[in-house]
Design goal:
By secondary structure, the chain is mainly alpha-helical. Among the domains are: 123 residues; 123 residues, no CATH class; 205 residues, no CATH class. It is built from 33 helices and four strands. Strand 3 and strand 4 form a beta hairpin. Helix 14 packs parallel to helix 19 and helix 19 runs parallel beside helix 21. It is elongated and about 110 Å long. InterPro entries: FHIP, FHIP_C, FHIP_KELAA_motif. Belongs to the FHIP family. It comes from Amphiprion percula (Orange clownfish).
Length: 743
């Protein structure tokens, strides 16, 4: 029995023996540091002339070795010694006093490596997070300080630790009224006290019970518990220090500080998110810098330069001033602006939801409303063109949901009810932008149309509702007749519906090559598209397709004389684009079938909406306006036609709807244009050969500079023919998608 007890005791001693030399070694190095302060009288010598850096490095190595030799999560005697003797508190005091000179740098490095190399969670310990919090306050105090690099490394490792365990952020929300600012005694006296304290070697079991348990950890710190964060008197020093370092002249420091902020805004803790937006200057930093970069841009810039400058990712802003200036004036300023915009966008995208909303609103109020709106509302054509091109680039670049929402509200307003002709000017900016689509300056018209083309492709439902859908909600573009008064249907169509195949304007000129028989459209169908339900009573697709293909009479067609310009090329593009749109719109509550007539307010007066009115007006002048304008008008209309909304599809792509008196649809607008064209064709000698020559010139098959009479008209006819083919392809693809998804 006694021998068995002796054996157990011997094994226990052997198990403990290896750790004793490590602890003795650790204590030796720490005592060597503290004895330096007791014995030295020259505190002006730099720390690099002493053995302190070496001793600190040895202490880190011992702690790392100790953790590697023990089971995961087990605290060794060296770590217990560091915690129990408040070594980090003492180092903080030495670092704050920077005694000897350079000690702050050494302390920052020690903290950084300790947090980075030790795997067990240290921040829950009060003797870790309290000195860490104090050291954070020392960072960013002085710009371009010699310790900036060490400061940012330290702050970033703290951010990384908080990202791993977000609940720990509560330790770093410091109540202003309870800030424990301890007046430090003379450094040497403080260190003497620690150095001469007896090495009790006692266990930290009690302290760990108080401070290491995670649920209790956040509540244990009286200055930082979640309950004390429900007021607005918290300091978020970690954010404040990072914000200071974003003002560093060293670009690398700025990028690292921005990365640290990116980690902090993404923390899910509501108290941290609230403190971030209410008690720090983060929103001010984002918006002030955005405004500053924007105001540094030249007053006049080529829209093409703005549109084509390479895509910019924040943090990868490498540049050459001479090369940039040689490309175009203002390129460097533009890249700086777009780079910071990208950072704001990504920060808001990563941020906790409530924080993202606050930051996005700040950008709207302090940048869009205060700075951009006056630029967009000015009367100088050069200024309008530059600011519109910049806005277009901003729209293209923004991807965060919260910032996109605020930008859309800024541009279009938040109204949801249907538009009325008398109230279209209620939102001055929205009204001005839409009016610019029909500006006297073709350049402004084209740029604004591009802006709206970009806007309607963004994944935001309010854009489409504001611009078009709210005017079509009640389907009051259809004639209001009770069911019993309507004519009986023939082949699915009203008796008095215009049959374009019988219409004398089109009937004799339908080219067999351009027709699609009832079986042809099935055999040439593209691959399946995403779900889009088939509408009840939908006109057969081949009739719709032929209606668009046959709108332009044969003598006004030129595409069949040139290879590779057939209808099939539009089918492929329409299928791809429709699939993309379905992906964007699938989250929205768009029913597959139109709203039933009995639920529609058909008596309400119909107004197509300001945006569609301007587009239809411009479409009606397609034969008399420049080629580039026509391309942009039809590009916007084709994008709208691709949207998988049943009312928009009906209004833009169904030639057979029974329009209410005084109403127009896209098809009826084109019919009027074709009627005007038929009258004008006969007044132009050699119309068809001239038309073919213009098409070949536009395709680069004929030399430029050839003088041709009626060039604007001929170019307009070509755009009209291509647009009708595009609409036919879109109608076909959407019908096929609906048929594929039908049960």
């Amino acid at each position: 029995m006694f021998s068995k007890f002796t054996s157990i005791l011997q094994h226990a001693v052997e198990a403990l023996a290896p750790s004793l030399p490590l602890q003795e070694d650790f204590v030796y190095h720490w005592k060597a540091i503290t004895h330096y302060y007791i014995e030295t009288s020259d505190d002006k010598a730099p720390v690099t002339d002493t053995n302190i850096p070496s001793h600190l490095e040895q202490m880190l190595d011992i702690l790392t070795q100790e953790e590697g030799e023990r089971e995961s999560g087990e605290t060794g005697p060296c770590m217990e010694y560091l915690l129990h003797h408040k070594i980090l508190e003492t180092l903080y005091t030495l670092g704050k006093a920077d005694c000897p000179p350079g000690m702050k740098q050494q302390v920052l490095t020690f903290y950084t490596k300790l947090l980075a190399h030790i795997r067990q969670p240290l921040l829950p310990h009060i003797n870790v997070h309290r000195p860490v919090q104090k050291l954070i306050r020392l960072c960013g105090e002085v710009l371009a300080a010699p310790t900036e690099n060490e400061e940012i490394q330290f702050l970033c490792i703290v951010c990384a630790k908080l990202k791993q365990d977000p609940y720990l952020v509560n330790f770093f929300l410091e109540n202003k009224s309870k800030r424990p600012e301890i007046k430090s005694p003379v450094v040497t006296d403080r260190v003497k006290e620690n150095a001469l304290a007896p090495d009790t070697g006692q266990s930290l079991a009690e302290e760990q019970a108080d401070h290491q348990d995670k649920p209790q950890a956040a509540a244990a710190a009286s200055t930082s518990s979640p309950s004390s964060n429900n007021n607005n008197s918290n300091n978020y020093n970690l954010v404040s220090s990072l914000l200071n370092l974003t003002k560093s002249p060293d670009g690398r420091i700025v990028v690292k500080a921005c990365e640290g902020l990116m980690l902090l805004v993404s923390l899910p803790e509501p108290a941290a998110a609230k403190c971030l937006t209410e008690n720090t200057e983060l929103c001010e930093l984002l918006t002030d810098r955005l405004v500053s970069f924007y105001k540094a841009l030249p007053q006049s810039m080529d829209p093409l330069d703005i549109e084509t400058v390479e895509s910019v990712n924040w943090g990868l802003d490498v540049y050459n001033l001479k090369e940039d200036a040689a490309v175009f004036t203002g390129k460097r300023a533009l890249i700086s602006f777009l780079s910071w915009l990208d950072y704001c966008d990504q920060l808001i995208k990563e941020a906790q939801k409530s924080a993202a909303a606050v930051m996005a609103k700040a950008v709207r109020e302090r940048f869009f409303v205060s700075v951009m709106e006056p630029q967009l509302m000015q009367t100088s054509e050069v200024g309008i063109l530059t600011s519109t091109a910049l806005l277009n680039r901003i729209i293209r670049q923004v991807t965060s949901e919260a910032l996109l929402q605020e930008m859309v509200y800024f541009l279009l307003g938040e109204e949801r009810e249907p538009e009325a002709a008398a109230t279209i000017a209620q939102n001055p900016l929205r009204h001005r932008l839409i009016e610019h689509c029909d500006h006297l300056s073709d350049e402004i018209s084209i740029m604004t149309l591009r802006l709206f083309e970009q806007l309607i492709q963004k994944p935001n439902q309010h854009i489409l509702h504001s611009l078009v859908l709210r005017s079509l909600e009640e389907r009051n573009y259809m004639e209001n007749k009770p069911q019993e008064e309507r004519e009986p249907l023939e082949n699915g169509q009203p008796h008095d519906a215009v049959d374009l195949e019988e219409d004398p304007l089109f009937g004799d000129d339908i080219s067999p090559d351009n027709r699609l028989s009832g079986s042809d459209w099935l055999s040439s169908s593209p691959p399946q598209s995403p779900d889009h339900s088939k509408s009840d009573g939908k006109t057969e697709v081949h009739k719709i397709v032929n209606s668009f293909l046959c709108l332009v009479p044969d003598e006004a067609k030129s595409s069949y004389h040139v290879e590779g310009t057939g209808y099939d090329t539009y089918l492929r593009d329409a299928h791809r684009q429709f699939k993309d749109y379905c992906g964007i719109c699938q989250r929205w509550d768009w029913r597959g079938n139109p709203k039933p007539f009995e639920k529609c307010n058909l008596d309400a007066p119909f107004f197509e909406g300001h945006f569609l009115k301007v587009l239809f007006d411009r479409m009606g002048r397609i034969l008399d306006q420049p080629y580039d304008v026509n391309l942009q008008v039809t590009a916007v209309l084709s994008k709208l036609s691709l949207l998988p909304h049943p009312h928009l599809h009906e209004y833009l792509l169904d030639p057979y709807i029974n329009l209410a008196p005084g109403c127009r649809s896209l098809f009826s607008v084109i019919v009027r244009v074709v009627g005007d064209l038929m009258l004008r064709i006969h007044r132009i000698p050699d119309f068809t050969p001239k038309l073919l020559l213009v098409r070949k010139t536009l395709l680069g098959l004929e030399p430029e500079g050839i003088t041709i009479d009626h060039m604007t008209l001929l170019e307009g006819v070509i755009v009209l023919e291509e647009f009708c083919k595009e609409l036919a392809a879109i109608a076909f693809v959407k019908y096929h998608a609906a048929a594929s998804s039908s049960p």
